[in-house]
Automatic annotation (TrEMBL):
Ranges of biased composition (kind: Basic and acidic residues): 482-493
Limits of the ATP-dependent DNA ligase family profile domain: 611-731
Cofactor dependency: Mn(2+)
Biological source species: Microbacterium gallinarum
PROSITE patterns (UniProt xref): DNA_LIGASE_A1, DNA_LIGASE_A2, DNA_LIGASE_A3
GO molecular function annotation: DNA ligase (ATP) activity
Family from the record: In the C-terminal section; belongs to the ATP-dependent DNA ligase family.
Reaction catalysis annotation: ATP + (deoxyribonucleotide)n-3'-hydroxyl + 5'-phospho-(deoxyribonucleotide)m = (deoxyribonucleotide)n+m + AMP + diphosphate
Protein name as annotated: DNA ligase (ATP)
The UniProt record lists the keyword tRNA-binding: no
Keyword presence, Disulfide bond: no
């Protein structure tokens, strides 16, 4: 509701968002929340086109208004004084004084700009150099602007003429429908072109096309010469001018987008500007048509600069890894430099060791991780420098991409540097409180080669910087996956070992099917240990005998967010303990609800926390214990730890409990389905507590939700699907008729697309068979008689009855439409 304010965490940055329900586009009812959602989802495609460029913005704080009553707009160059300190900025002198321009290189910055209603983002056709100076022009842009009596069709014709000339010059152009009136053409320029030279090239090209086609083209800015013609505006190549960024929203009455297009689309006589929902939908199937002009700038930017190797190995449209957003390096922060150690399950498991230095993360791959003793040295291979944004990266790099596999943060923190030479680095690292690294003095010594792929030794020093003996740490790497109990981390001198808990395992379990789970249980011997999988968040609880403190998996203290658990005597006994469990919010019918929990996860204001604690109290379901009565029990079998855990929680408050376990996989699956849980976790009762190590001793089995649906319409295909269809409109019989249930556009093979289109074409009809289909989805739909039943896999139903994240599974010829019903209905 208007006036609301929430503190959220996005990409490791904290940001306050307000008035998410505020309507910014009255004609369509589009809210600020939807604008933020758009920029969040389009970020991987948008950021490569703006990275390293100063961003000027057009802001509509009160919305764009209507044609009769337009909203107030502000053209902003200087970053607002209240902008978060982590928003990167670069100063540019002006006659009126120096202005700090924002640099957009990550999702949090985009969300901040959307929060202050910066609907339009404009950038020049040059990037900053690493030393903060204005670089050469790297792109040429032609703005094809139709005058009165002309429109997009005329612009498309002129674009085709320009394409022929540019291609003959070796400059392949990429079209963008501007979202306003015309078309922009972009082409990568060879290195070394000044903005003045780029402007002259564009001007001469515009004049040449005007000379050949004077009846349709004009290169003069005089308004008297423009009726019925298309202006080729070449002036936007001037170094002081900007152009709307690809994928930026427009501040029009409808939320249109400056949308990159294919040349085939420009041949469509029905060519029009696209709304933001349409842009999001098409990117799922065709990606970014102008990827080649992303942050690579046609490949040229990959050849120079401190992050050139990083950029050259990645495509932002295919990997979730962060795009370098600030070519000037890290913003000075006056603190010690940072480090991060990431566990990387790629072709071979290894740990990525990264130290901040000169504005980048200097990186090594360490197959066996940080040595836990000074008696051993581990091999480290230097890799390419990484951007500072990588320090908070966790995610899955798709298979087939460079470094494909999952990445999680093993530990991170800051370090004190003693020595940095080309062949030797010595530093004292201090990880997050209670983390697996602790405080440790390390040395990196080069043994062979130079630069990337050179070989180094990672050595744990025998003494710290003050000459005191260093404690051993937790083993990392293959040796930690043996049956031997890893030694517990000992506190360093003067360290308060009770200040925070050890970081919970990054991933204790691996995914499995029910069949694999049953086979593993049989292989383990004895009865399996099967628990419910709750749709909540992991939390470690530190009990000091009177009060419970909670820590997230990241190590952050989240005690204050759950006063119903932490402001009372939790009843876990008189002795200290560290327990592991899951925070869960329940719907009134007892079903776990992650969306309900999300309303609690990022609150900071005490009044809001207290209100939500009363409205949606959180439960703490315990499933393991690390220490009891001051003793480390991680090396004891699970069956022993379970007994200790049950003793600890015997007198706990009602909101804290130890859920029951099953000894049969199939019975547990049936029970979890009946309770509508996320799935089950099958555990070996002999297993030890292993921190941060994947283990087949814990197997997750998630339920897959499927739904039968009636096919009611076809959305025409675009781009690579122009010969088939883009998505199917779905319905489920309900009160009043065939209720709209959303659309499915993924899960189709090429052969399936062709076969389905062949099957559906004879069923075409002019009548809409659906009830409740939004006008935007119905606008270009091709309706079919609702006679065919299909099946989709999906995440959940929205409160409005729409399938979330559906994926096509296939036709169900054994089912008739009148047999279809909503599977999760009571």
């Amino acid at each position: 509701m208007p006036g609301t304010s929430n503190m959220v965490s996005i990409g490791g940055r904290r940001l306050r968002v307000t008035n998410l329900d505020k309507v910014l586009y009255p004609e369509t009812g589009t809210t600020k929340g939807e604008v933020i959602d758009y920029y969040t989802r389009i970020a991987p495609l948008l950021i490569p086109h703006v990275a390293g460029r100063p961003v000027t913005r057009k802001r509509w704080p009160d919305g764009v208004g209507t044609d009769d009553d337009p909203g107030m707009v502000f053209f902003a160059k200087d970053l607002e004084r209240g902008a978060p300190s982590w928003v990167r900025r670069v100063p540019i002198p002006h006659s009126t004084g120096t202005k700090d321009y924002p640099l957009v290189g990550d999702v949090p910055t985009l969300v901040y700009l959307a929060q202050v209603a910066s609907l339009e983002l404009h950038v020049p056709q040059w990037r900053f150099t690493p030393d903060g100076e204005r670089g050469f022009a790297d792109r040429l842009v032609l703005d094809l602007d139709p005058g009165p009596g002309a429109g997009l069709p005329e612009c498309a014709v002129v674009a085709g003429w320009a394409r022929g000339i540019l291609s003959g010059m070796g400059l392949d152009p990429y079209p963008v429908t501007s979202g306003s009136k015309g078309i922009h053409l972009y082409a990568a320029l060879p290195d070394g072109q000044t903005t003045e030279q780029a402007s002259m090239i564009a001007k001469e090209l515009a004049r040449a096309i005007e000379a050949d086609h004077p009846d349709l083209v004009v290169s003069s800015m005089k308004k008297t010469e423009r009726p019925g013609k298309v202006l080729i505006d070449w002036s936007q190549n001037n170094g002081s001018k900007t152009t709307i960024a690809p994928y930026s929203l427009r501040g029009r009455t409808h939320p249109t987008v400056a949308a990159p297009r294919t040349w085939d689309e420009l041949d469509d006589p029905g060519l029009r500007h696209l709304l933001f929902e349409e842009v999001l939908e098409r990117t799922e199937t065709i990606g970014d048509p102008m990827t080649a002009l992303g942050f690579h700038a046609g490949g040229r930017q990959a050849e120079t600069g401190p992050l050139s190797a990083y950029i050259s190995k990645r495509s932002a449209s295919r990997t979730p890894e962060p795009v370098p957003g600030n070519p000037l390096g890290a913003t000075p922060h006056g603190e010690k430099p940072i480090f991060v150690i990431q566990e990387h399950h790629a072709t071979a498991l290894h740990w990525d060791f990264r130290l901040e230095h000169d504005g980048v993360l200097v990186s090594w791959a360490v197959p066996r991780g940080v040595p836990h003793s000074y008696k051993r040295n581990n091999l480290a291979i230097m890799t390419e420098d990484h951007p500072m944004e990588y320090a908070s990266f966790e995610g899955t790099i798709p298979a087939g991409e460079y470094g494909g596999g999952s990445v999680t943060i093993w530990d991170d923190g800051r370090y004190e540097l003693e020595k940095w030479r080309d062949d030797e680095v010595i530093a004292t690292l201090e990880g997050r409180p209670g983390g697996p690294l602790g405080r440790v003095r390390l040395a990196l010594i080069r043994t062979e080669g130079e630069g990337e792929k050179s070989s180094w030794l990672l050595h744990r020093m025998k003494t710290d910087a003050a000459g005191r003996p260093q404690p051993d740490g937790i083993p990392v790497g293959p040796s930690a996956q043996t049956d031997e109990r890893p030694p517990a981390r000992r506190a360093a001198p003067d360290e308060d070992s009770s200040a925070a808990p050890p970081v919970p395992p990054a991933m204790l379990s691996t995914n499995a099917t029910p069949g694999i789970a049953r086979q593993s249980a049989a292989r383990w011997g004895g009865e399996p240990w099967v628990e419910g999988k709750w749709d909540g968040i992991r939390a470690l609880g530190v009990w000091d005998g009177s009060r419970l403190r909670l820590h997230a998996r990241s190590g952050n203290d989240i005690t204050h967010r759950y006063p119903e658990l932490t402001d009372v005597d939790a009843g876990l006994g008189d002795a200290p303990a560290i327990v592991d469990g899951e925070l869960v919010a329940l719907e009134p019918d007892g079903r776990p609800s992650f969306p309900l929990l999300q309303g609690r996860m990022n609150l900071e204001r005490p009044a809001e926390i207290a209100r939500e604690a009363r409205r949606a109290p959180v439960r703490y379901y315990l499933f393991d214990v690390q220490s009891a009565d001051g003793d480390d029990v991680t090396g004891r079998p699970l069956r022993v730890r379970r007994r200790l855990l049950e003793d600890l929680a015997a007198d706990a408050i009602p909101l804290i409990s130890v859920p029951p376990v099953f000894d049969d996989v199939d019975a547990a699956l049936d029970a979890s389905r009946a309770l509508r849980l996320e799935g089950i976790v099958v555990k070996d009762p002999r297993s030890r507590y292993t921190g941060g190590v994947r283990s087949e001793s814990w197997l997750k089995v998630k339920h897959t939700s499927t739904q039968e649906v009636v096919i009611a319409g076809i959305r025409p295909g675009k781009g690579g699907r122009s010969g088939t269809f883009g998505s199917l409109l779905l319905g489920i019989p309900g009160p009043g008729g065939l209720q709209y249930a959303g659309r499915v556009g993924s899960g189709f093979s090429d052969s399936t697309l062709t076969q389905l289109l062949r099957t559906l074409t004879p069923l075409r009809t002019d009548e809409n068979p659906l009830v409740g289909v939004p006008a935007l989805d119905a606008r270009d739909a091709l309706w079919v008689r609702p006679e065919l039943v299909g099946e989709v896999e999906y995440g959940e139903f929205t409160p409005g009855g729409i399938l979330r994240h559906p994926r096509w599974r296939g036709l169900r010829p054994d089912k008739s439409p009148d047999e279809v019903r909503r599977e999760d209905a009571p």
